[in-house]
């Protein structure tokens, strides 16, 4: 079976290729008449945009699912080896997302987003651990640190996608984390039906976020898409 890391690498390759404009299909219409060339360019543009939406949706849904695996392992009191393995997959996904950003906006943007994006999942895991321990003070501490990192992530995205306000991004990221955090609380309490509904809501919400980000990327980099 293909590993999660292999899937992530494949997804990143798609996004980076999109960002760098390496899809060779744009050459197809070079020797056609003007109408055929325009039709070919329009089709290619539509395909690139669709591929971008799919790639972002896959990566962000993987972010949710990998985070849920970590949370359940922590709350269930799984072995440290199992928890560490789940965290490794979670971090690989975070780095892949940052790499995809770099493929489109450059290394400075990649470097700027890597640390806060990786750190926000660390704080999310700290929150899950606090839930598992029944430590409300630790939950509050982790939540404060988590929101600070989300603000940094929103600021970086706004710097490259100015059409999406920082506050809007921050609110969407916070809503995403709130769903995951509440799912952890319900899971710990044994309210599994409610927990699973919240988890599903998080997946639906992140797909909407992927769609919005894809639209902002296309708007900010029209020559690439």
Task: Describe the fold and architecture.
- It is built from seven helices and no strands.
- With 225 residues, the protein is mostly helical.
- The chain has one domain (4-220).
- Helix 2 packs antiparallel against helix 3, helix 4 runs antiparallel to helix 5 (136-160) and helix 5 runs antiparallel to helix 6 (166-188).
- It is elongated.
Name some characteristics of this structure.
225 residues; 84% helix; disordered N terminus
- End-to-end Cα distance, whole Å, is 33 Å
The profile of the biggest β sheet is: none
What Rg do the Cα atoms give? 19 Å
Unreliable segments of 5+ consecutive residues:
1-36
Gross geometry:
elongated
Q: Give the SSE order as H and E letters.
A: HHHHHHH
Structural class of the secondary elements? mainly alpha
How many DSSP helices?
Answer: 7
The total number of structural domains is: 1
Q: How much strand content do the residues show?
A: under 5%
Mean pLDDT: 85
In which range does the helix fraction lie?
over 70%
Number of strand elements? 0
What would you say about this model in short?
The protein has 225 residues and is mostly helical.
List the topology elements.
Layout: H1 4-20, H2 34-75, H3 80-105, H4 107-133, H5 136-160, H6 166-188, H7 192-220
Helix pairs in contact: 1-2, 1-3, 2-3, 2-4, 2-6, 2-7, 3-4, 4-5, 4-6, 5-6, 6-7
């Amino acid at each position: 079976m293909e590993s999660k890391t292999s899937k992530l690498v494949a997804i990143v390759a798609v996004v980076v290729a999109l960002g760098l404009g390496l899809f060779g299909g744009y050459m197809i219409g070079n020797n056609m008449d003007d109408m055929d060339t325009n039709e070919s360019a329009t089709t290619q543009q539509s395909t690139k945009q669709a591929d971008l939406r799919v790639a972002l949706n896959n990566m962000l849904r993987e972010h949710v699912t990998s985070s849920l695996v970590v949370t359940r392992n922590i709350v269930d009191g799984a072995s440290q080896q199992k928890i560490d393995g789940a965290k490794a997959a979670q971090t690989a996904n975070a780095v892949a997302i940052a790499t995809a950003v770099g493929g489109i906006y450059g290394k400075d943007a990649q470097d700027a987003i890597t640390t806060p994006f990786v750190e926000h999942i660390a704080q999310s895991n700290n929150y899950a651990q606090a839930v598992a321990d029944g430590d409300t003070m630790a939950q509050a501490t982790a939540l404060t640190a988590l929101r600070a990192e989300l603000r940094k992530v929103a600021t970086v995205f706004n710097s490259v996608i100015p059409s999406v306000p920082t506050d809007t991004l921050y609110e969407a990221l916070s809503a995403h984390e709130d769903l995951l955090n509440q799912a952890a609380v319900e899971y710990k309490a044994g309210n599994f039906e409610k927990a699973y509904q919240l988890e599903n809501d998080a997946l639906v919400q992140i797909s909407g976020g992927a769609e919005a980000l894809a639209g902002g990327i296309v708007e900010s980099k029209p020559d690439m898409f």
